[in-house]
Amino acid sequence: MKYKKLWLGFIAVMVGSFAVLGYYGSEIYRKAPPIPDKVVTASGKTIFTAQDIKDGQNVWQSIGGQELGSIWGHGAYVAPDWTADWLHKEAMFFLDRWAQEAKGTKFDALDVETKAMLQARLQQQIRANTYDPATGTLAISDLRAEAIAGVSEHYTGLFMNDPALAKYRDAYAMKDNTVQDPVRMRKMNAFFFWASWACVTQRPGLDITYTNNWPAEELVGNRPSSDLIIWTGFSVIVLIAGIGLLAFYYASNKEEEIDIEKLPKEDPLLGLQATPSMKATLKYFWIVTALFVVQITLGVVTAHYGVEGQALYGFDLANFLPYSITRTWHVQLAIFWIATSWLATGLYIAPAVSGYEPKFQRLGVNFLFICFLIIVVGSLAGQWYGVMQKLGYAQNFWFGHQGYEYVDLGRFWQIFLLIGLFLWLFLMVLAILPAFRREAEGRHLLGMFMISSAAIALFWAAGLMWGQHTNLAVAEYWRWWVVHLWVEGFFEVFATVVIAFLFVRMGLLEVKLATATVLFSTIIFLFGGIIGTFHHLYFSGTPTSVMALGATFSALEVVPLVLIGFEAYHNFKISKITQWIVAYKWPIYCFIAVAFWNLVGAGVFGFLINPPIALYYMQGLNTTPVHGHTALFGVYGVLGIGLMLFVLKGLSGRRRWKDGVISFAFWSINIGLALMVLISVLPIGLMQTWASVKYGLWYARSMEFMQTDTMETLRWMRVIGDTIFAVGVGALAWFVVGLKTGWSLEEDEDVAQSVERKREKMVR
Questions:
Q1: What percentage of the chain carries pLDDT values higher than 90?
Q2: Rounded to whole angstroms, how far apart are CA atoms 202 and 194?
Q3: Which runs of consecutive H residues, i.e. helices, occur in 271-392?
Q4: Binning pLDDT at 50, 70 and 90, where does residue 238 land?
């Protein structure tokens, strides 16, 4: 394939995809659920104002936001989805009141015909859109005002300290007095009402709600729309067609067998002398290892909160380190250590590729390291202060907890990190530029390396596109730019380029083949991946067109993952073809594991929840962390480990590694991850899906369902996989420390000389 055609294809995909993303993003702005200036009853009483709702959103963010329960299905999974829960409670208030007036009993005790009549009356009243855009007023009935007051009273007792609701707080892993101020609580109730109002109120001129009839709730007439079912079918057709076309491409462009005679006879990297800046990256990997251990420890505590809501084996931990904090730190540290491993690898590879050490490069690497430590410590401390309700609304936004999963850190820390990423990009450009002048054939691969590096810095900036009072639908749009495009998109491209660079420098891939492969893979991945961002936004207050695009292009995201086995097999062959490569066995094994988890975690478990009809019932259930753990850690985390091991191998010079501990760590981590998912999280998610289909999301997330003996047993079974995984992480940390102390290394011996002696013995 000609490079020119590939570059044109890459440019076309980027320009076309972002044009679509931008245009429909403007539609999300235009058609987001409106925030009324005031909510007024039929008798003229003002219940809430726009400022109440906006402040209430800030209160919700300050207690952890999406790290404590969820809104519109996005967030944590132990506490309820507050929108689905509020909607059900509000509906039952209406129905029980009418049932009492008509028959003197509760709604559940009525006959079928009377129930149907009252449900029809409820739907007629509650689904009607009574918002007047001219005056900015939302008119509600006096009875609905009573319903709001009734649900608000329940939530006030739950989030504060009503002893009668202590069992609910324990089941939901909420500390007592999660919200400490009654004024703040009233405003958060205003936000919860508005978010649930968007779930049940029909868009002007349509018969679907602002959230496309999500969540499933028969009482109010929330059922799957015809568009949802049609686009589900279309996405499956697109998936099958895409797999067929890509399979045809692979068959017609069969990869040539690796010519062993052309491979280097000894390690080409043995003669590589680490520059001062390359050596300075070592400390990054020590921090990566330390953060990984802390992150997993917090994950264990967070998982345990699912069975003992306010304590850790009897110790009252929630008052000091509540669930919303441990989960926040668990997620945030995962992003930190994975990104740090990848960025440090870039800093190591850039001078190695160019053979040039810019002036003050080491100083820049060390300065960036200090900035990183300040960001980690500062952002985590700010989140704790925010959740413990020690910050005001603006203070929390800037320095505390923003409440949006994966981008929880305060705005100041977001900006600080963005500056750090641009400093990293500057250091990368300085180090790599000489290679452009020297390597004519390799310029295309270097170009992709720099583009992917620039994208990592640029796309983090999407997290600055919302403000303190931005409409939640708009904030979700930009949040997924960060989570999907930054984490799942351009980090993936960066990883593909880095692995290609490693294999080229080791003499295992020709630069022409590597360049063509990287460009083609990037085009295929981004063609579905950029617009596929919309599959996260089916039910987040977005128009139907977003669902159509998300369903179609997210199916295309899966296409390259289905055939990822070719990549795994290729890497496995490389690990076996010559003896000196044994020195890089564990980094290459990590790359093989990445291919496996790409197929299973991102492909199989991703598509399990991607089609609209599946996500309609599964959004906000434990089927999401099945995909999250196997894709985020299985793909990006294991790749971060592999890149770390590759660099550590380069920095440990000619000494051979002992296999025992690192072998145990590799297999324990991967087996533990598989068991965690297969014997606990996935069965819980599937049982919740059954409950969601049959009764609604409110029930699938309720205490009454989640605290049954069966669900309790399944949660405890997670201990098996978690323990194996955690022991593997401990072994990995022990091995990394041992590279410094020497206990992970064999006696001083040149790898190439060792291989040569083995060859001589074989000849004799």
A1: 66
A2: 13
A3: 276-280, 282-305, 323-354, 361-387
A4: confident
The DSSP bridge pattern shows strands 74-75 and 131-132 to be unpaired
What are the tens digits of pLDDT across the range 533-554? 999 999 999 988 999 999 988 8
Whether 195 and 68 map to the same domain: the answer is yes
Residue bearing tokens 């995809």: 17
Q: Ranked by mean pLDDT, which of 268-277, 409-418, 499-508 comes out on top? A: 409-418
Residues 415, 427: Cα–Cα separation, whole Å: 19
Residues 568 and 712 in one domain: no
pLDDT computed for residue 490 by the predictor: 80
pLDDT in tens, 323-349: 999 999 999 999 999 999 989 999 998
Domain count, the chain: 4
In this structure, the number of other CB atoms found within 10 A of the CB of residue 217 comes to 21
Is the Cβ–Cβ distance between 477 and 28 less than 8 Å?
Answer: yes
Average pLDDT, the chain: 89
User: Are 655 and 746 contacting, i.e. CB atoms less than 8 angstroms apart?
Assistant: yes
Two tokens, residue 56: 């209430």
Residues 3 and 66 in one domain: no
SS3 112: helix
pTM equals 0.93
pLDDT at 570: 66
Phi and psi torsions of 63, nearest 5°: -85, 0
Q: How would you label 363-402 residue by residue, b for 16+ Cβ within 10 Å and e otherwise?
A: ebbeebbebbeebbebbbebbbbbbbbebebeebbbbbbb
Q: Give the mean model confidence (pLDDT) for residues 508-537.
A: 84
| Rounded-to-integer distance, Cα 157 and Cα 175, Å | 12
**What is the per-residue pLDDT for 364?**
96
The side-by-side arrangement of strands in the sheet containing 38-41 is: 46-49, 38-41, 137-140, 131-132
In a domain, 265, yes or no: no
User: Under a CB-based contact definition with an 8 Å cutoff, are residues 42 and 140 in contact?
Assistant: yes
Q: How far apart are the first and last CA of the chain?
A: 46
Answer yes or no: do 433 and 469 share one domain. no
CB 171 within 8 A of CB 500: no
pLDDT at 300 over 70: yes
| Encoded tokens for 308 | 């003992």
Burial class for 184, CB neighbours closer than 10 Å (0-12, 13-18, 19+): buried
State the sign of the Cα–Cα–Cα–Cα dihedral 156, 157, 160, 165: negative
